């Protein structure tokens, strides 16, 4: 469980690094790292569940005192595992919320820029400087901005899908833990 705690700290640091970097940067490496750490944490949770289940199963043929001690150990482990699962779930949810918020802000910026260009034609009519209007947002610049925005949105969608997948896996772990608690 200490390894899970350490990995959660690592994951939070990766989330923060991912969210605070400039949005147009290439973050494929960071995404893969976040995905790998999330999957590793999920595997660790499954491994801990198996160990807890083994402890519970092995306690059935023991004396009443040994059985009570093993049940106390199982109860403590399940409680610790639930706490770690909650932290993992909240970290994933917070990262997802931050990504969505950042994406919305980015969309607002790009939409505002586009709307301003189309709706403020009176400003351009009053300016007779052809070089300014030609250089303001050329078709090539607009195309680059659209391509950059599209790739950024696709990247965010991949990140969000991975986080949703991790949350779904975590939900399964919560269900298993709830069954273990109910069995006690």
UniProtKB/TrEMBL annotation:
Question: Where is it located?
Answer: Golgi apparatus membrane
Check the record and name the SUPFAM superfamilies matching this protein.
Answer: t-snare proteins (SSF47661)
Q: Which GO terms describe its cellular component?
A: Golgi membrane; SNARE complex
Its BP terms in the Gene Ontology are:
intracellular protein transport; vesicle docking; vesicle fusion
Q: Per its record, what are the GO molecular function terms?
A: SNAP receptor activity; SNARE binding
Q: Which UniProt keywords apply?
A: Coiled coil, Golgi apparatus, Membrane, Protein transport, Transmembrane, Transmembrane helix, Transport
What is the membrane topology here? Answer: Single-pass type IV membrane protein
UniProt-listed InterPro entries: SNARE, Syntaxin, T_SNARE_dom
Annotated coiled-coil positions are none
Keyword check for Transmembrane helix: yes
Keyword Coiled coil listed: yes
Gene3D superfamilies listed in its UniProt record = 1.20.58.70
Domain (T-SNARE coiled-coil homology) spans 150-184
Q: State the family it belongs to.
A: Belongs to the syntaxin family.
Protein known as: Syntaxin-16
What organism, scientifically named, is this protein from?
A: Araneus ventricosus
